[in-house]
Amino acid sequence: MEIDIGINKDDRAAIANGLSRLLADSYTLYLTTHNFHWNVTGPMFNTLHLMFEAQYNELALAVDLIAERIRALGFPAPGTYKEFQKLTSMSEPEGVPSATDMIKLLVQGQEAVVRTARSVAPLADKVSDEPTLDLLTQRMQVHEKNAWMLRSLLES
Q1: Exposure pattern of 48-82 as b/e (b: 16+ CB <10 Å)?
Q2: What pLDDT is attached to residue 103?
């Protein structure tokens, strides 16, 4: 059955493509954060272990919301590492970084997700796609706050 939500197919496709990039960035950040949760060591272990856990749990819920929005727009959501690797703007770290480097990498990851979300917003705004705009706004708020909190740990 054809989708008739007041947004034409080409515009829905452009938005879904942007959301697919957001999904890939979010999943890559999820995986990196979970990795760091498992492997962090040092004097800030407990603080970072718990912070990383809260962040990856939030991301696990977020990727579902993003994928479901892509589906609501009428397109398949990417769901494999291979697809995510092609779509993401992020790279995965090699080895096990120090706790300080983990924080820096996660700041960069949080900010990458914000940039990707921000790049999709004009597409959604152009066609008054308020549900996507709402999702993007919420994602940017979460990731900007997370980046700020992580950056705060780096200050002396």
Answers
A1: bbebbeebbeebeebbeebbebbeebebebbeeee
A2: 98
